[in-house]
Amino acid sequence: MPHLDQDRTLDVITIGRSSVDLYGQQLGTRLEDTASFAKSVGGCPANIAIGTARLGLKSALITRVGDEQMGRFIREQSAREGVNVEGIRTDKDRLTALVLLAIESEGVSPMIFVRTDCADMALDEGDVDEAFVRSSHAVLVSGTHFSRPNTEAAQRKAIRIAKESGGKVIFDIDYRPNLWGLAGHAEGFERYVKSDRVSAIMKSVLPDCDLIVGTEEEIMIASGADDVLSSLKAIRAVSPATIVLKRGAMGCIVYDGPISDDLEDGVVGDGFAIEVYNVLGAGDAFMSGFLRGWLKGEDHKTSATWANACGAFAVSRLLCSPEYPSWEELTFFLKNGSKHRALRKDEAINHIHWATNRKQGDIPLLMALACDHRMQLVDVADELKVPHEKISEFKRLTVKAAARVADGRPGYGMLIDERFGRDAFFDAATQNFSWLGRPVELPGSKPLRFEFSQDIGSQLVEWPLDHCIKCLCFYHPDDPAALKKEQQEKLRTLFEAARRVGRELLIEIIAGKNGPLKDDTVSTALQELYDLGIKPDWWKLEPQALAGAWRNIEAVIAKNDAYCRGIVLLGLEAPTEDLVKAFEATKVAPSVKGFAVGRTIFVDAARAWMSGKMDDEAAIAQMAGRFRELTDAWLRTRGL
Ligand SMILES: Nc1ncnc2c1ncn2[C@@H]1O[C@H](COP(=O)(O)OP(=O)(O)OP(=O)(O)O)[C@@H](O)[C@H]1O
Ligand SMILES: O=C(O)C[C@@H](O)[C@H](O)C(=O)CO
User: Fold this and answer.
1) Ligand 2 contacts CB of residue 413 (under 6 A)
2) Which ranges carry the DUF2090 domain (predicted)?
3) Distance between terminal CA atoms of the chain?
4) Nearest ligand, CA of residue 287?
5) Distance CA 588, CA 585 (A)
6) What topology does CATH give the domain 13-271?
7) Are 192 and 171 in contact (CB under 8 A)?
């Protein structure tokens, strides 16, 4: 029964394997000698579901994952990427598949598939829901899942439903000989082993397809012929589908209609000249780009260009799905190109990549209880002659206070430090805050120094991915030139490290303690940092008495970084009434998303509690009360 187009809520459902990819982080080494791995979602259909979602298509994935942490990672990460995960079934008995890979040299990437009796290979017909398939404009089946009777039945069922309801069928040949038992465990990277059995099965799929995509080797295995041209002709003899031949660095050729004797007699899409980093995953990025065009009715030339550009991005970066471009990134690249052959070194593109694929989407509201104070609490403890362990205990109470106000709602967060806040961090991790920030500055330092070690990148690697780096810098545009230069370099180093390790960055600028706060003081400071290419996700700024100052800050951010998440206001121990007035003054500045205030909320409780005059509950209640007063005031200011 055909299906009405308006009832189709999905553009494409991809079916087949899903894995956790563990790719070696040391370039030019054997898998035997790899020391650390980066983790991401992988497997051809999973990659394509993510790749197409990033390009603005509504995609879904049908696969199975294990009932364990890696399975949950695939499900959660796919959902974060915007993929519909209704079709991901949890298999109670089997483990999620893993893939281990190293980059030994250009184009040589040994890999191990850890897939013995893995969850996705247990996919069966029961996992393919008829209504779900009918809700999509297209289904994409993939080669590996024709290798077992149960997975083959599942894919054939999806093909049948799609065809009956007038949906399109896409075939990514995606040939991994090792997954058909044709190469050993150490030969995961092997791309071609001739096999009549494989060819017979694949060939039987071709007549049902509307789009067939493969490399030269894949086109050969799908047809059973021994050269590319004969293979294309053999495929055409059984299928009217559009055929896309991927040709690595040379790009691709798209064929509709009869195949002539000239291989190039199709729509030729040239590859982009880029430096190769890791070739794996290029095909899935390519397919994502092609589908964005093909499913939306673009001509083949356009689809091929988008596909080749997406492939180029994948090849020039390390991982698979995390490296695929967003739609904004792709269009920026096609419009502006890049002066870097190694695309991963292009800062403008990297910024768009980072900002348009951030783990957490838009954060329209951020009200944080800041308790990352170190010096100030040490002073209180010393004055009261209590041991510094009390500071750590006190910080745990601030988490309780913030959680009491947040009550599980979005828009609340905390700033906590490593030195005294380790336990508080563990507590905070269970509270479902929207945001957790963590300082890196050595308290009071000017010129700026990092706490613990100046090797900031190595420190950040140990942080949870969702901890936002917070760095306070006492910076005034009128500071002496040498001081400015030193602080700027430090902030630039931090920015590079933050991007490298994929953690968000908040830069806090306090200018008012070092000179007059005129209406262009802070905006000038921000512009000077933007001039150095420093684009933090957040700014934390002091209250501005002059409305013009906020307007100037807004203008500088708008001019330099359309992707900035926004600004939070800092408190500087001001009385609540002053802060409420400062909130009001930000009405002209929509970039201000909230505040991160500390001492106004906790300093009295800290003194009373450390001196034994207040018990835990009273301290929590007082801090929660003050935090609530501020959150209420902020929400009122913003009409929320
Ligand atoms: N060296 C390269 N330079 C530029 N683009 C490339 C390069 N290699 C691959 N690409 C792009 O990626 C596309 C797919 O690459 P390839 O032919 O290697 O696919 P594949 O073997 O299916 O990839 P995978 O490793 O994901 O299985 C190419 O058609 C091209 O657009
Ligand atoms: O499954 C593979 O082939 C390897 C994966 O690591 C990778 O994500 C992939 O699917 C590339 O096509």
Assistant:
1) no
2) 329-637
3) 48
4) 1
5) 7
6) UDP-N-acetylmuramoyl-L-alanine:D-glutamate ligase (3.40.1190)
7) no
The tokens describing 571, both together, are: 């408190």
Q: Which helix (H) or strand (E) holds 42?
A: strand 37-42
**By alpha-carbon position, which residue is closest to atom 13 of ligand 1?**
311
- Prediction pTM value: 0.95
Exposure of 8 by Cβ count < 10 A (0-12 exposed, 13-18 middle, 19+ buried)? middle
DSSP letter at 191 equals -
Distance (Å) from CA 52 to ligand 1 centroid:
17
User: Which of 44, 218, 313 gets mutated to test ligand 2 (max ligand atoms within 8 A of its CB)?
Assistant: 44
188 in contact with ligand 2, CB cutoff 6 A: no
Fold annotation for 369-637: TIM Barrel (3.20.20)
Say what the pLDDT of residue 7 is: 81
Mutation probe of ligand 2 site: the residue of 19, 73, 147 with most atoms within 8 A of C-beta: 19
- The answer to whether the 13-271 and 369-637 domains have the same CATH topology is no
- Verify whether ligand 1 is closer than 6 Å to residue 276 (CB atom): yes
Q: What angle do CA 23, 26, 27 make, to 5 degrees?
A: 95
Q: Which two tokens stand for residue 572?
A: 């500087």
Interatomic CA distance for residues 64 and 121, integer angstroms = 8
Output the pLDDT for position 546: 87
Measured by CA distance, the residue closest to atom 3 of ligand 2 is 43
- Residue 404 has a pLDDT of 98
Phi and psi angles of residue 474, each rounded to the nearest 5 degrees, phi first? -80, 105
Q: Among all ligands shown, which has an atom nearest to the Cα of 21?
A: 2
Question: What's the 84 CA to ligand 1 centre distance in angstroms?
Answer: 26
Q: Is the CB of 45 under 6 A from ligand 2?
A: no
Q: Which residue among 145, 320, 321 is best mutated to probe the pocket of ligand 2, counting the most ligand atoms within 8 A of its Cβ?
A: 320
| Span 428-442, average pLDDT | 96
Predicted complex: ipTM over 0.85: yes
Beta strands 366-371 and 211-215 are: unpaired
- For residue range 303-333, list pLDDT tens digits in order: 999 999 999 999 999 899 999 999 999 999 9
Q: Whose CA is nearest to atom 10 of ligand 2?
A: 43
* Residue 280 and residue 109 in contact, taking contact as beta carbons nearer than 8 Å: yes
What would the pLDDT profile of 443-493 be if each residue is shown by its tens digit? 999 999 999 999 999 999 999 999 999 999 999 999 999 999 999 999 999
What whole-number distance in Å separates Cα of residue 93 and Cα of residue 67? Answer: 8
Does residue 447 have a cis peptide bond before it, meaning omega lies within 30 degrees of 0?
Answer: yes
Indicate the domain borders of the chain: 13-271, 369-637
The 10s digit of each residue's pLDDT in 498-510 is 999 999 999 999 9
- Distances in Å between the Cα of 618 and the Cα atoms of 221, 266, 380, 567, 623 are 73, 76, 19, 32, 9
**Distance in angstroms (rounded) separating the CA atoms of residues 168 and 145:** 18
Indicate if ligand 2 lies below 6 Å from the C-beta of 172. Answer: no
Query: Going by C-beta distance under 8 Å and a sequence separation of 6 or more, which residues neighbour residue 346?
Result: 338, 339, 340
